[in-house]
Amino acid sequence: MLSAACGGDDDDAADDTVAATTVAAAETEPPTSPEATIETETTEASPEPTEAPETSEATGTTAGGDCGEVGDAGSINVFLIPSPSSTSIQSFIPEFEAATCIAVEFSETPYGEAHQKQLLAYEQGDGQYDVAQFDNTFLAAFGAAEALTPLDDYLADSAEYDIEDFSTGQQDYGKFDDQTLGLTLSTEPMIQYYRTDLYEELGLEPATTWDEFLSNAQALSEAGVADGTLLGFGPNVSWWWMTLVWSFGGQIYDDQLQPTVNTPEAIEATEYLKSLLAFAPDGAISANGDDVMFKFLSEDIGSIIQYSGYYGFVLSPEANQHLDAIGTAKMPLGAEDITHLAGWNIGIPADSQNQEQAWQFLEFVLGKSNARAYLDSGAAAIGRISITEDEELVTELPYLQLLNIPDSSRIERYPQLKVWPEMDVAITQAITGILSGQTDVQAGLDQLQEELTPILAAENG
Predict the structure, then answer these.
(1) Which end of the chain is more exposed for a tag (fewer CB within 10 A), N or C?
(2) What pTM does this model have?
(3) Residues near 265 by Cβ (< 8 Å), separated by ≥ 6?
């Protein structure tokens, strides 16, 4: 979820939810969805509508129509995690209640507590929640616990949700053991951001390969017009290190859950990551996920690699001192064409006693009819093909076309393992030690290989 989702513990989560035109910053732990969290817990009934909608596009029913009073068709309890996605979901509640007479109550729990709270509730099995937002990194844990209802039958019958409006990779994003346990709530691939004014000044083009990315950074630095680049070299370094390992043709572990972090591909990726430090601003060694975006928008830095979920800050005059000078492009290619994808999921707990009503809610908020309204409400974009190929939208928000991930690009995401948190700590410590010069690349990765072996062995223990 970022802030993302789409590892690590940023010590400075971004400000509270920003205005509807902005998608918020990186999550504090783990950062798979780059939407900011609000460290509060609330339980509320549905918000009062400022103006009652007359019709529902998704259902075609008339608000206050024949269904009766709100609550006559049942009620659902929605578990949310503070973020722009949560705020957007809440904005649809009055219209949904008026159209369906299903009452909606919701609660928000801060990210750091949310997933453990969900797991405890699912273990009790008393149906506390009917809809639940979660970070994709917890999909495996929830799936292994059989805590979520498979949604494939609902999807097969839903022309309104229209699962075929997503690329194959994104259809699979919420799957565990070939069952869809979570719908996509945000689509946040790693992409390239660059300063169009600086690139134009030096006659540079957005990098299509990692060699070009390094060359651009070097050119900017040597010309003295800007620092060349900035990646998260600090407490969230696993985001970028894994991305590079995958792109350079490596893996973090194999099919037998044996670590593969000291292979030639992993060594090359780590050496490349370290080489970028020479063209980064002072203090880059401690930069976390949020720092990467905020420094890029407030200082003179040529380019960064960051989740698309941060794009909202590009639109914010408060955050961006280089308005109209920020471009986006696909992440550079390495030995393999990969997309590092992060983002929120949302699903129906297996112990819910109101699953039909819960599906109606998900279909209403996230269906195709309301896709534009969902984006306009301030949430991180969901990569529906109909959204990413909408010419008017793409003209307004060019980064949207990068969310249409082609089938030719292999999607990689945070390891869907119960032991991922322990892995992330080990990776972060090892890579920061290498980047700071405490150990060399080969020795550091050999040590990481040893440390990850028992961690991964515990996955099936």
Answers:
(1) C
(2) 0.85
(3) 245, 248, 249, 250, 335
pLDDT in tens, 65-121: 578 999 999 999 999 999 999 999 999 999 999 999 999 999 999 999 999 999 999
Last-in-domain residue among 353, 388, 403: 403
Residues 307 and 326 in one domain: yes
Count of CB atoms situated within 10 Å of the CB of 215: 14
Query: Are 331 and 352 found together in one domain?
Result: no
130 is written with which tokens?
Answer: 């009917």
CB 293 within 8 A of CB 306: yes
Q: How many of the other CB atoms lie within 10 Å of CB of 179?
A: 13
For residues 182 and 144, state if they share a domain: yes
- pLDDT of amino acid 461: 72
State the residue for tokens 């109101």: 354
Closest CA to 364 of 87, 39, 89: 89
Element containing residue 23 per DSSP (H, E): none
CA distances from 199 to 316, 320, 349 (A): 22, 18, 49
**Letter for the amino acid at 218?**
Q
| DSSP per position, 358-420 | HHHHHHHHHSSTTHHHHHHTTPPPP--HHHHT-HHHHHH-GGGGGGS--TTSEEE-S---TTH
Domain boundary among 290, 310, 340: 340
Whether 456 maps to a domain, the answer reads no
Task: Identify the CATH number of the domain in which residue 317 sits.
Answer: 3.40.190.10
Q: Are residues 227 and 137 in the same domain?
A: no
Would the CA dihedral through 211, 299, 238, 425 be positive or negative?
A: positive
Q: What are phi and psi of 79, to 5 degrees?
A: -95, 120
